[in-house]
Amino acid sequence: MKTNLGDFIYYLTVEKGLAKNTLESYRRDIGQFLQYLAKNKVGSLAQVNRQVIVKYLGQLKSKGYASSTISRNIASMRSFFNFLTREKIIQDNPALQLESPRPEKKLPRVLSLKEVDLLLSQPSLSTVNGLRDKAMMELLYASGIRVTELVSLNMLDFNYEVGFLRCRGKGMKERIVPVGTTAINFVRRYLKKGRIKLVKGSDEKSLFVNHHGRRLTRQGFWKILKKYVGSAGLPGEVTPHTLRHSFATHLLENGADLRSVQEMLGHSDISTTQIYTHITRKKIREVYDRAHPRA
């Protein structure tokens, strides 16, 4: 069978000017597909139809290839058969109507309770910055709000007596989120001994401010957290969103219902919240495998 692979790669090199690594991906993807055709006695490229390609993709999936790899293979074949139709080697592109698989949702990194305690114990309470950092991290873990929502908080957004804060999420949608006594106490301590020394004027509305006395930025908080993650020696990547993920997972592990967690996180669609049920199921499986005598 004449494969036309060399002509295709030449076309991508000269006319498309693709990078070397991209060319290698095309060569590898199409080369493996051509091997499959030869093994299954497909006599010519003109005999390849949608069913042949779907069967090949099914084989890739059964071998454990990731959705991203299968999507790349589809793109490679679509481009290859486009070239063949352009050169009038075949009449129609059999890969044209193929749908790429949905990308797999990666389970977010979640801290254990021990790791959360270690991380939250890093700020020094003897400095104004430490008081602020401790209050921010405790509040982030206690409420599950996003880092953008955290730095957007104003003084009037916090009701300390009732234990609720008001935050503005995506699309500026407001929601009310409960906050535990531990976080409230550290925020109060920051207001009394930290913020009062950081702000330059009484007209500053921001709850959390930087050393200039102005609203702390999202990037500013990222740097602060990165410093404490380093001093805690936590493995892997830990971001502000990690505390949000840990908040949701720990609630569900301790019996909270999905709808309540959805409301607290500010998810418009419960399917977004359901990713956390996969984490808790995985944890249950680990407990079962470790504890059951016949697991």
Could you explain how this protein is built, in words?
With 295 residues, the protein is mainly alpha-helical. It folds into 2 domains: 5-86, Tyrosine recombinase, N-terminal domain (DNA polymerase, domain 1); 113-291, hpI Integrase, Chain A, CATH 1.10.443. The chain has helices spanning 5-14, 20-39, 50-62, 67-86, 113-120, 128-143, 147-151, 181-198, 218-232, 240-253, 258-265, 270-273, 275-291; strands at residues 158-159, 164-168, 174-178. The chain has a 3-stranded antiparallel beta sheet. Helix 1 runs antiparallel to helix 2 (20-39), helix 2 (20-39) crosses helix 4 and helix 6 (128-143) packs antiparallel against helix 8 (181-198). The longest helix has 20 residues, at 20-39. The chain starts with a helix and ends with a helix. The model has no long low-confidence stretch (mean pLDDT 87).
Largest sheet: 3 strands, antiparallel
Structural class: mainly alpha
Could you give the count of β-strands? 3
Task: Please give the count of helices.
Answer: 13
Uncertain spans: none
Proportion of residues in helical segments: 55-70%
CATH architectural group of the largest domain:
Orthogonal Bundle
> What is the CA-based Rg, rounded?
27 Å
Mean pLDDT rating: 87
CATH fold topology of the largest domain: hpI Integrase, Chain A
> Given this structure, which CATH class of the largest domain is correct?
Mainly Alpha
Key traits:
295 residues; mainly alpha; DNA polymerase, domain 1; hpI Integrase, Chain A; 2 domains; three-stranded antiparallel beta sheet; 3 strands; 4% strand
